[in-house]
Amino acid sequence: MKKIKYTYLFLILLTIHLCVFSQSFTFQNYSVSEDLSQSQVYSILEDSRGYLWLGTQGGGLDRFDGENFKNFSRKDGLKDIFINALAEDTNGNIWIGTNHGLWRFDGWDFKFFDLKRGNSEKILSLLIDRKGDLWIGTIKGFLKIESGKIIPFSDDNNLRRSEIYSIYEDSRGSIWVGSNFGVTKISGSRIQQFSSNTGMPGETVTAFSEDKNGRIWVGIFGVGIGTFVGDNCYLIKPKSGLKPLEIQTMEMGIDGAVWIGTFNQGLFIWSDQDSIFAQFSEKKGLAKKDVRAIEKDQWGNFWIGTSGGGISKYGGQQFIHYDQENGLEEEFIYALCEDDFGRIWFSNYDKGVSFFNGRFFEHLGQSSDSLKFVSKALFKDNNGDIWIGTEKKGLILYKDNQFTFLQNYFVDPAINIRDIIQDKANNIWVGTAGSGILKLNKDTSQNIGFRVQRFTKNNGLLSNQITNLHADTLNRIWYTTRKFGVGYLIDDQVVDHFSIQEGLVSREVKTMAEDSTGFLWFGTPLGLSKLFLYGDSLFLSEKENNQKLNYKNLYSIAFDAENNLWTGSQKGVEKSILDGGRNIIETKFYGKSEGFLGIETCQNSVWKDSEDNLWFGTMNGLTKYQSGTTVTNSIPPKLHFTDIRLFYKTLKKTPFSDFTKSWGVLEPGLILKHNQNHLNFKFLGVNLPNPEKVKYSWKLEGSDSGWSPPESQNEVMFPNLPPNKYTFKVKACNEDGVWSKEPLIAEFEILPPFWQTWWFRGLSLASILGLIIVVFKIRLNQVRAKSKLIKDQLEIEKKLLQLEQKALQLQMNPHFIFNALNSIQSLISQKDHKTARYHLAKFSKLMRRILENSRDQAISVEQEIETLKDYLSLEQFSRGNTFNFRINISSDIDIEEIFIPPMIIQPFVENAIIHGVAHLKEAGEIEINLITVDNRIQCEITDNGIGRQASKRLKSQQEEQHKSMALTVTQERLEILGDTNESSVFFEDICNAEGSISGTRVLIYLPILSII
């Protein structure tokens, strides 16, 4: 497919427009109704970011991205809102010349620049040269700012007292200055003056431009345009007479085409090749005829600033649109065809038919009321005759410059005709809305005579409501219906049909066309279906292609010279590029913003003329697509950040403002805290030809793995970002799928909280390890201590058990047992059996008690007293009742509820008997007293024996050993069972009044034990 860039399209279109006066340029106008701040636009600048800056007279400064306006005025810091000139420096700053001085805008703030010549000086023109120096033209002369210093010009050559209307730098670096004293050329240190004294055609020079040959063009107010050849200026003289032009601005087009803006004379385009001026004003689409500024952007669009009409955009002329202002009778164009003279025939709603000869329109319906009808079918046959299908008036034939109504040939003369075709045998086929299909055979017996054959549902048609007809190369007659699909006839026989069951996307078929490869295409309200006509079998396909169409409710189908598919809908037209298998590769839609001003197409109203141009009938006029002018936008959108927000607050107004440079640039090195993790990126890809078609794709490296799907959203929010290093990347593509060469990048880092840092984690890990070690050691020591405690307790219990066993052994003293049994035996010998049995029972009871008590850790006081009584009774019996005993218990001792260790008191009582009272000549006395002292049981054992010292001298070695072991074992048991470190056993001798020993007292402190 042939593709022409925007910047090269103009020459082709200009030539066409200069030759055809009746058509108009397609201007798209913007004014206050489109949110432009003020309708007087005196200066226009396209900056390096692709924005269009507009200086207004009273509205301030407007920035335009092709879709939306943003206004800057006093509220933003621009104190003077009357703007005459604009320029951009090498840093991207916008310089603004106003009625009262010079301002600079850095993307954030406006700053007044004092020229040291009076703050009320009116600035008329500005220029930033290739060195970056600023040239300023004022109402009081000329000056320059170089490296921040103001350099005024001397009064030489009148520069200091001139009104400087225009400043221009040519390709050789020379500066051209236009003023009310003519032209001044500055080439380094050389200054040349051109005025009426040196042959200038006029004095007031308002504009300059340079063509590709290096010629300097000059706009002279009230005179016209001229060119410099050497040091001479020559006035351009057009072939036709033209009033002197009051030129205010000028812009160079292509190949000598000069765009000229004038005061109240409109826009002129001068073709140097043809020496022709083309003029455009409001009648031809321009917003206003008072043109103050012209700017050609990098896409090749021309922007025209006017006084009172806002701005007009001319974006190329792929489509030429004709409406009533261009001479149409009506704007509803229902049917199209071309005659042998290259004239385009079309129907005008209810005004009949007209034709366009390339220069003007001729309306045939004006000659007679009978020719005012509604027609939805036009056809030129092989003889060059025009067939007209009407609503209610039947079929009309235009032959030899005459109209013939053919109602007499039809059963229903008021039929509504939808399509007309001719087969290989030159038969005319007519499709009707309700009367089926009519076949007209030429009757050679007369000049105009036909035999009519009719096909209806009775003959096998799917429906009598026919929408289209088509004859293929095999002479099959295809027809489409309003609600029942598609069918065809061969040799006047209905053969086959296709509907949803056979793959048709909808039963309603509105349009039909065959391409050059043999595919028959059907347009429906649900999209496309296609059928290959010349294969082994007929089958439908097409659901995949419908996914790529922007609009599927199809009114018309056509194919251009490159066999691309064009479909018409209620929104405009769409061009689809097809591959070898006739599948859609890509599509491009054309609506109002793309220059297709007709917008809604009419059903089947499309025609490819002999020059391969496509003509579309629409509800708003006639539109022509010029073959060979397909434009591909090869310039990707100019992408930049419009705002970066942290928690919904612009970064400029946060402590991180130092990272935000002007014009949306984010400096590297932005580091945020862990709780500063909610970021919002706003961006814009400026694409002035089709701003609404820009799509974006982005990714966040450090979080996302891939690019997002392309979409029109130009804002991305990232809430709750985890700590990491991030790079946000975004790219943009234009309407033709051309993507940014390099993505826009913003780098930043979110620090982790201190508890997630490596040093904190290391410290925490070390602390945890240290704590684990400490806990482990503490636990180990506890386990060891517990183990030792358990071990000691087991040792104690073991020792206590051993002591209890020893105590049991000692309590069961062999001497005591022998003496007791011997005494019982003596009773038996004396035949005192009753007493023997009594004491034998008491002895056995004592032995049983001792054994039972030895198994318990604690016994009641009552049990201990009963055991002592039995023991003392047997000792008393076996020793011949030589001593008496008493046991006294304090009243505060509950003998049943208080528990004490077993086998504690008996060894001491035994010691009192054996070593105390046993050596007395008189009766011995043993007294046992139990009282409570300090939560313990105090057991006092007293005897009236010989005392401890005397006892030591009398007792035998065996008795001493027994006594010593008994007391030792008992004392050790008491120490183990006691809850204090104090001694639990005390011995003392009892002395009488004379001071001699009269007995022994033993104090034993027994712990009170609890029973669980």
Q: How would you portray this structure in words?
A:
- With 1012 residues, this protein is an alpha+beta fold.
- The protein is built from nine helices and 71 strands.
- It has a five-stranded mixed beta sheet with strand order 66-68-69-71-70. It has a four-stranded antiparallel beta sheet with strand order 1-28-27-26, with no helix packed on it. The chain has a four-stranded antiparallel beta sheet with strand order 2-3-4-5, with no helix packed on it.
- The radius of gyration is 61 Å and the shape is elongated.
- Mean pLDDT is 86; it is low at 1-23 and 957-963.
User: How are the strands of the biggest sheet laid out side by side?
Assistant: 66-68-69-71-70
Structural Rg: 61 Å
Total helical elements: 9
Q: State the distance separating the first and last CA atoms.
A: 106 Å
| Biggest beta sheet attributes | 5 strands, mixed
Helix content: 10-25%
Enumerate the spans where pLDDT stays under 50 for 5 or more consecutive residues: 1-23, 957-963
- The percent range for strand residues is 35-45%
The number of E-state strands comes to: 71
General form:
elongated
Summed over residues and divided by their number, the pLDDT gives a mean of 86
State the secondary-structure class: alpha+beta
